[in-house]
Amino acid sequence: MKKGLKITAIVIGVILILMLLLPFAFRGKIEGIVKTEGNKMLNARFDFSSLDISLFRNFPKASVTLNDFWLKGTGVFENDTLVKAGEVTAAINLFSLFGDSGYDVSKVSVTDTWLHAIVLPDGKANWDIMKPDSATVSETSESSESSPFRIKLQRFVIKNMNVVYDDRQSAMYADIHNFNALCSGNLGSDQTLLNLEAETEALTYKMNGIPFLSQANIYAKMDVDADLVHHKFTLKKNEFRLNAIKAGIDGWVELKDPVIDMDLKLNTSEVGFKEILSLIPAIYSKEFKNLKTDGTATLEATAKGVLQGDTVPRFDVRLSVKNAMFRYPSLPAGVDQINIDAQVRNPGGNIDLTEINIRPFSFRLANKPADDEHPFGHGRIEYVCALIVSFIILLMGGELIRSSVDKILPPEPIQFS
Questions:
Q1: Residue 95 carries which DSSP code?
Q2: Element housing 247 (H / E)
């Protein structure tokens, strides 16, 4: 019995020693392959500070980690860093390390990443860095070698990614802060069901300088039927949250480079007015949990068509709020009798065709009796504004009458030319 335990302990010890030593034996080989394959595929400059191999991190898979990885463009983008990642890890089939038939990659994890995507006014993008496939250039070429990496990806993880998208051709700008995502499925197949869960701490989106979203917190958990051959993604069971608004999305998105085709519909039940207020950054960032509200709202949105450059799909967004109110507990009064009927729509095509209709948008501010600091009373701001406007009109009318009288008495000589 003791002898068997001793032999077992020795075997386990030998295995652990081998697992510690083997990574050093393969490090140089894999590092050379990564740089060689990168230079074959990419028309860009890239490097990393170190490469680590571990047989413990994703056992029974071997983990290959690139530390302080960066990728820069060439030509007009030579001074722009496209990607900078603190750590990029790939899980590789352990037994594939002992052969020459290739390495099976089943998991990729990216941590502490900064990504800056740029589209110049002429349409040139800094992420267009892939070299033409030698197999497509010359199908009869027998000298073209296949990559030693076989992608059988089943899991993709992003932790703490910050993204800036600067499209100067379409005047679109997006800033994504602290993006985290987990995607699982058979990404090596032609058709698969993807399980996706993602959240970004803050998203800012602008088009033509107009902010559509500002520091928005977005969360999504969805099942996606993915046709990876035609790049079409159909949404199945899903949950979506924009700040405090929870909704579901039906439809599909198809990537037809350089066009994005879509047919999407936002599904929301009747939501509270507090959830609608979460779309206003100044309100959502300050004591939002303690905000007192009343009233309900409805939010509907659809988008159908293609997105490319200045061309946008047909979209329609409707917001209706009836007799709502909000007040901070720390303040003596709030805003009530809020009524909003707003619509933003575009028939599809040019973004300049967008129509914004708001009718009505009314509210009552601080309905309280007059006091020493508010002699005209609370909730009377519209009367004060009307009085000021009337006074200005009277001044302008008086000035016009005075100038006319000055010209009549005495009359000015007529000038002929």
A1: G
A2: strand 245-256
Tokens at residue 397, please?
């009318």
Q: What is the pLDDT of residues 156-178, one digit of tens each?
A: 899 999 999 999 888 889 999 99
Question: Alpha-carbon torsion 141, 146, 147, 150, what sign?
Answer: positive
Six-digit token pair at 232?
């079409």
- DSSP conformational letter for 26: H
At residue 47, does pLDDT exceed 60? yes
pLDDT of 399 reads 56
Q: Give CA separation, 338 vs 147, 331, 369, in Å.
A: 63, 18, 20
Cross-strand partners of 101: none
Q: Output the CA–CA distances (angstroms, integers) from residue 362 to 128, 222, 230, 397, in the order listed.
A: 49, 38, 48, 30
Mean pLDDT confidence for 107-131: 89
Cα separation, 277 vs 15, in Å, equals: 60
Residue matched to tokens 């992608």: 151
Is the pLDDT at 77 greater than 80? The verdict is yes
pLDDT digits (tens, 9 = 90+) for 187-197: 778 888 999 99
Do 94 and 103 meet the contact criterion of CB atoms below 8 Å apart?
Answer: no
Decide if 279 contacts 268 (C-beta within 8 A): no
* Cα(330)–Cα(23) distance, integer angstroms: 61
Return the residue matching tokens 């990216």: 110
Query: 260, 217, 261: which is closest to 240 by C-alpha?
Result: 217
Decide: 236 and 225 in contact? Cβ < 8 Å. yes
Judge whether 370 and 377 are in contact, CB under 8 Å: yes
Q: In sequence order, what are the beta bridge partners of 220?
A: 198, 240
For residues 332 and 343, the answer to whether their CB atoms sit within 8 Å is no
Angle at 410 between CA 404 and CA 412, to 5 degrees: 75
pLDDT in tens, 318-335: 888 888 888 877 766 778
